[in-house]
Amino acid sequence: MQDNEFHNIVSEIMDQSSAPENQKVVVAQFELDNSPTELALLLESLPLVSRLEAWEQFSDSIKVPVLVEMRSDASQTIIQTLNDAQLIALFTGIGADTLLELQDVLPDHIVEDVLVRMDEEQKLHFSTAQQFDDKEVGHWCDRQALVVPGKTKIKVVIRLLRRKLPTYANAIFLVDTQGLWEGAVRLNNLLDADPLLLISELAENDFPALNAKDDIYAAADRVAQSGESALPVLGDDGLLIGRLDMGTAYKLQSERAESQLMASVGLDESEDLFSTVTKSSKNRAIWLGVNLLTAFLASAFIGFFEATIQQVVALAVLMPIVASMGGIAGSQTLTLIIRGLALGQVSSANLKALLTKEFKVGVLNGILWAIVIGAITGFWFDSMMLGLVISMAIVTNIISAAVAGVFIPVILVRLKIDPALSGSVILTTVTDIVGFVAFLGLGTLFLL
Amino acid sequence: MQDNEFHNIVSEIMDQSSAPENQKVVVAQFELDNSPTELALLLESLPLVSRLEAWEQFSDSIKVPVLVEMRSDASQTIIQTLNDAQLIALFTGIGADTLLELQDVLPDHIVEDVLVRMDEEQKLHFSTAQQFDDKEVGHWCDRQALVVPGKTKIKVVIRLLRRKLPTYANAIFLVDTQGLWEGAVRLNNLLDADPLLLISELAENDFPALNAKDDIYAAADRVAQSGESALPVLGDDGLLIGRLDMGTAYKLQSERAESQLMASVGLDESEDLFSTVTKSSKNRAIWLGVNLLTAFLASAFIGFFEATIQQVVALAVLMPIVASMGGIAGSQTLTLIIRGLALGQVSSANLKALLTKEFKVGVLNGILWAIVIGAITGFWFDSMMLGLVISMAIVTNIISAAVAGVFIPVILVRLKIDPALSGSVILTTVTDIVGFVAFLGLGTLFLL
Fold it and tell me: Under a CB-based contact definition with an 8 Å cutoff, are residues B330 and B378 in contact?
């Protein structure tokens, strides 16, 4: 999708003076040209009123796939405006996979109502998925896998495959009469195969597989590493539950990256660009509150030095520099360690070596910037002693920041807390307090 | 790979008292059990001395694939220790794709030497790739695509496919005698096809394709959206240059996420966990220097109010709170807008609506936290007036932060600067200065 095309459609829909008929034509053409993912992105980019206007112009057949692709906060803004009759009309006939995707944004009684009308196979899919936590691959795997009983004749399989091939199906999966996994057959091995043989004779038994309880993101990585287009997902009992394909793996991977980005400021990846002001304010208030506690804590430490500041006001002028240099140096170490932890590269075996290296980097950068800042301060306030005090505080804070940057994420991971979410707040609390106390404390000792 | 297995191998290699023979056995077994990607992760997780020890124990055949998988800063630590003869021995016989991957970490004369010994086909691959910038898909695409001339008989194609199927090959690509793209044939359409027909009779001419000049990350997204396991990469003239498959798309996607994470603290994604202390210090010093300039700027503004601070020291105690609340509120808006820009959801068409919404969120959270902070401050310092002053400063700073959080990334993108890299520094400079000036300025007006 071209950016300016996107821009035009948004303009057209948002233009209050444009005739509704005009909008309708634009939207209809747009619907033809774009995938549900792109249409979902469009809807999300519209303020609430225009979003609903655009939505109403979508044809019914595209509405459900678009809702599935939207971030949950955004799809909720649409679902909220629909009454029960409209919701049931929209969702009757959807499959288990779709219902699973929308389960959290639909009212419970609608989920039940839709479920009751599903056929037995879909109901079974839905209840199997519910056995797994929504962080497990068993909950999310694709149940439309290309599966045949191992006792099928090859010619029957070929007839099946000729009709329509699902995406990412470079192999077909075999099960026995109980539905237990029997291996996979790659498509190229079917070319030229004897049509009268049983498909199980071509099975690769060592085809890699996922366990339904695997973490979804780890499972996505496993699929990518396998070099296969999709891997089977098996229950503990060896039952074939579904598959995870590269398309889903790719989506999971971008979802993970997005959720890390948003987590760093205390937000959820489902946060809607145009959620209502009250909802948005509420989502963000929590993080601001957490930050406020840490800010008051830092202030309390400054408070101990009121008498010193009154006599040497320059300390108040300069103290943010000490805190901020520590914060930046610490964040660099923190980020490097968080990446290392995510890649499984940080363990108790190399922690000491890492700490030593980061400590040395802290010493080097601490001394470098202590000299620079000390010199500038000395000239600015015409006081060698003040320059010396800030130098010592900078060295102290940058080195402590390096040590904190190594330990904080490692400890958080041990406590099973995501360091990407809370690491940074804890770190800056430490660097603020160490920075203020070191600078103001040294100032009290040497400048009064 | 299990985490504790990883831990054990790292411990074994780092254990100075362990016999080298022992290490050798451990490494040899590890090499059998793990992919080059996993071995690369292992090497990166080792401090420099142990990294070289482990490297020397790897068998020659695995060394090049492992180097390719390592981040460039880390592979350089190994390449630096090898002399020309060793490098040439190691790299003689590698393909164009491998040389392209390692081009930036190898000395120029080694690249030339290896290139001279390559066969003509590989030389051609290499020079074709060099025609494209390393941000373009033409530079990086896989040249081992499954390609046949359109005039090939189906039975010949089947014989070819039966032997060995490349990964992610759900379709084979057809070219004419000049190498121009003629379309694709999906494997399932070959099942049961008349072996005497020409393969071109089954060609899908509307199979999606990438242009060699497409941005690599955009190209990865296109492959994922297409639902195909790989897309052909075509030159402007319609020449088939190679393909981009889902495995590579997935890697590109994680590389992008990693580089965003690292960019947020001024680092490169190639940054090595154990690079030398001097190199590491240098890499980080630049960002610390940029931050120092902004910190001094903020201090200069505080400096204007020295007289006020001397009389009301409480202002110095509390001013970090005002700056930090603005910084957090602004980062939340900034992050939301950066994500929107990355998804193509922010354009001049909806900018005004976005600004309005963020402004309102700012007003709401501004008022909320102004009341909370004002009340606490009023009690703490037993001064209604000080409480009122900090309340006004908080409202001002949180609202300005929301506005800055919208405009800064939008302006940076217009200037073609990555907002993920510099957005946060600029934003906190703004919120620091606005916060200090508002608080100390209002303090001067009302408290003196």
Answer: no
Least confident segment among A165-169, A379-383, B127-131, B169-173: A165-169
Q: What does the pLDDT look like over A292-328, one tens digit per residue?
A: 999 999 999 999 999 999 999 999 999 999 999 999 9
A258 to chain B: which residues are within 8 Å by CB?
339
Is A336 an interface residue toward B (CB < 8 Å)? yes
Residue B367, chain A, CB below 8 Å: the answer is no
Sequence-distant (6+) residues with CB within 8 A of A127 are none
| CATH class entry, domain B277-447 | mainly alpha
Secondary structure string (H, E, C) spanning chain B: CCHHHHHHHHHHHHCCCCCHHHHHHHHHHHHHHCCHHHHHHHHHCCCHHHHHHHHHHCCHHHHHHHHHHCCHHHHHHHHCCCCHHHHHHHHCCCCHHHHHHHCCCCCHHHHHHHHHCCCHHHHHHHHHHHCCCCCEHHHHCECCCCEEECCCEHHHHHHHHHHCCCCCCCEEEEECCCCEEEEEEEHHHCCCCCCCCEHHHHCECCCCCEECCCEHHHHHHHHHHHCCCEEEEECCCCEEEEEEEHHHHHHHHHHHHHHHHHHCCCCCCCCCCCCCHHHHHHHHHHHHHHHHHHHHHHHHHHHCCHHHHHHCCHHHHHHHHHHHHHHHHHHHHHHHHHHHHHCCCCCCCCHHHHHHHHHHHHHHHHHHHHHHHHHHHHHHCCCHHHHHHHHHHHHHHHHHHHHHHHHHHHHHHHCCCCHHHHHHHHHHHHHHHHHHHHHHHHHHHHHC
Residues 16-45 of B with CB under 8 A from A: 35, 37, 41, 44-45
User: CATH assignment of A147-244?
Assistant: 3.10.580.10
Chain A CB contacts of B338 under 8 Å are 261
Query: Looking at residues B294-317, what average pLDDT do you find?
Result: 96
Closest residue in chain B to residue A256, using alpha carbons only = B257
Min CA distance, A181 vs chain B (Å)? Answer: 22
CA distance B83 to chain A (A): 27
Q: Which two tokens stand for residue A133?
A: 């936590």
Q: Domain residue spans in chain A?
A: 3-133, 147-244, 277-447
Class of domain B147-246 as given by CATH: alpha beta
Closest CA to A363 of A322, A398, A312: A398
pLDDT in tens, B414-434: 999 989 888 999 999 999 999
User: What is this model's ipTM?
Assistant: 0.90
CA distance A211 to chain B (A): 15
Nearest CA to B229 among A335, A156, A227, A135? A227
Tell whether B130 lies on the interface with A, counting CB pairs under 8 A. Answer: no
CATH topology of domain A3-133: MgtE N-terminal fold (1.25.60)
Closest Cα to residue B219, out of B304, B137, B314, B317? B137
What predicted TM-score, i.e. pTM, was given to this entire model?
Answer: 0.91
The sign one gets for the Cα dihedral A436, A437, A440, A443 is negative
The residue of chain A nearest to residue B368, with distances taken between CA atoms, is A285
Q: What amino acid occupies position A241? A: I
Least CB-CB distance to B247: which of A224, A266, A372?
A224
How many whole angstroms separate alpha carbon B375 and alpha carbon B378? 5
B390 touches chain A (CB under 8 A): no
Q: pLDDT per residue over B165-207, tens digit each?
A: 788 988 999 999 999 999 999 988 888 889 999 999 999 989 9
d(CA B325, CA B435): 9
